[in-house]
């Protein structure tokens, strides 16, 4: 005979206490990028672009701060493009990830098909892949067989925090009140510009904030996979109604399922698949990273011209992926497929010994 009033135990009751880990609202660089990226607009200086044997280089200039970044576009054997963005004259070298790439990738010289001060079109010589760079505002379109399959910075979410001289040293050097930081003391603490606190832990940023971010629009794609490790569904979900996917190594016992918090490993490698095409994005950054995903559906309801009757209108779906990292540089590999097997080969070529 069963005992009356048997206590029910849920798996959720034994899951980890999430209060001891950060969610997006507690991550300072996420708050900064969400609040401040709208203010930053970049323009590429294409009239001074240099096309070399290994890469094409040009400046990207912030319209608000007038500080320039250095962008480099590489063509790599096997239908791979690489984009690197770094400070043109950093205060000190920013961290770049070693020991992940098996060796220096073999580059393919990119050829300029056309170009002027407003745009630049690069091709790998085969003609089936083109990289269209627009100057103002800065944007890159990856084109295959006259179809745009991926756009970079089409949402204007390029974000790059420059290393700064410590406030005390700057004040001593200038011997006057510092006016270069456009934020009150309260705002600085809220945004974690120079110091970030979580529980009993304090993270002091000697050279100020150094986060980076960039958006990618995948045209015609709505099925995304990858960026392990999370106790979530195989297909990545929209994050517009909740936390972003977090890439941060944690040894979590009793982790919660159906959750986007990071667990044992972090692999910043994302796959997008649709009928006839597969793409990959490999974001080479080892710092804490957050990934937002938003899919615009393929079917929308619109009002017809004949009256207020809702009708289905077929439109091309699009998925926007926003990568944000706490530090380092922007170093991203675009794996253009076109088949799933091709993408796996491209990733293996970069990372497997």
From TrEMBL:
GO molecular function, one term: carbohydrate binding
PANTHER family: ALPHA-GLUCOSIDASE, NEUTRAL ALPHA-GLUCOSIDASE C
Highest taxon of the lineage: Eukaryota
Chain ranges of the Glycoside hydrolase family 31 N-terminal domain: 72-291
GO biological process: carbohydrate metabolic process; N-glycan processing
InterPro entries, sorted: Gal_mutarotase_sf_dom (IPR011013), Glyco_hydro_31_N_dom (IPR025887)
Designated name of the protein: Neutral alpha-glucosidase C isoform X9
């Amino acid at each position: 005979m069963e005992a009356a009033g048997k206590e029910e135990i849920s798996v959720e009751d034994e899951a980890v206490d999430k209060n001891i880990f950060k969610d997006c609202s507690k991550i300072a660089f996420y708050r900064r990028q969400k609040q401040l990226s709208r203010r930053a607009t970049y323009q590429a200086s294409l009239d001074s672009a240099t096309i070399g044997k290994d890469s094409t280089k040009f400046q990207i200039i912030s319209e608000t701060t007038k500080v320039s970044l250095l962008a480099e576009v590489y063509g790599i054997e096997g239908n791979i493009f690489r984009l690197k963005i770094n400070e043109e004259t950093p205060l000190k070298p920013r961290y770049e990830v070693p020991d992940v790439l098996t060796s220096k990738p073999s580059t393919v010289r990119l050829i300029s098909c056309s170009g002027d001060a407003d745009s630049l079109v690069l091709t790998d010589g085969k003609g089936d892949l083109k990289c269209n760079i627009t100057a103002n505002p800065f944007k890159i379109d990856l084109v295959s067989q006259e179809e745009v399959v991926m756009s970079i910075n089409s949402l204007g979410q390029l974000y790059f925090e420059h290393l700064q001289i410590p406030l005390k040293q700057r004040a001593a050097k200038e011997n006057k009140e510092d006016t270069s930081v456009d934020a009150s003391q309260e705002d600085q603490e809220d945004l974690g510009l120079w110091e970030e606190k979580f529980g009993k832990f304090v993270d002091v940023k000697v050279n100020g904030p150094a986060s980076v971010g960039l958006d990618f629009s995948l045209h015609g794609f709505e099925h995304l996979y990858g960026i392990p490790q999370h106790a979530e569904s195989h297909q990545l979900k929209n994050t517009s109604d909740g936390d972003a996917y977090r890439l941060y190594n944690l040894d979590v016992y009793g982790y919660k399922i159906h959750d986007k918090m990071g667990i044992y490993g972090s692999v910043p490698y994302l796959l997008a698949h649709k009928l006839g095409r597969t793409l990959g994005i490999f974001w080479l950054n080892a710092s804490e990273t957050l990934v937002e995903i938003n899919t615009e559906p393929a079917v929308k309801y619109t009002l017809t011209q004949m009256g207020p009757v809702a009708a289905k209108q077929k439109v091309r779906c699009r998925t926007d992926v926003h990568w944000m990292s706490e530090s380092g540089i922007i170093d991203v590999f675009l794996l253009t497929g076109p088949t799933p097997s091709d993408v796996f080969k491209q990733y293996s070529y970069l990372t497997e010994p």
